[in-house]
Design brief:
Length: 71
């Protein structure tokens, strides 16, 4: 089953994405900050990462740049 990591500081978006994707049988993990998302990505090895662009600790572009450095 494909695993998706959602990084977003808005809990409502977590619920909306979960509602849409759980029915399609995806495994979902959630993070509320960029730093938390980076840590979860290292431990869960998701197939796909969906990230918000504007978050309090770092922007989604920075999260993406740092994730691309990881094998």
């Amino acid at each position: 089953m494909p695993r998706i990591l959602v990084i977003d500081d808005e809990p409502l978006y977590h619920k909306m994405i979960a509602h849409a994707l759980e029915a399609a049988k995806y495994q979902l993990d959630f993070a509320s900050t960029g730093a938390e998302g980076l840590q979860k990505a290292k431990t869960t090895k998701p197939d796909l990462v969906i990230t918000d662009v504007v978050m309090p600790d770092m922007v989604g572009y920075e999260v993406t740049r740092l994730l691309r450095r990881e094998p």
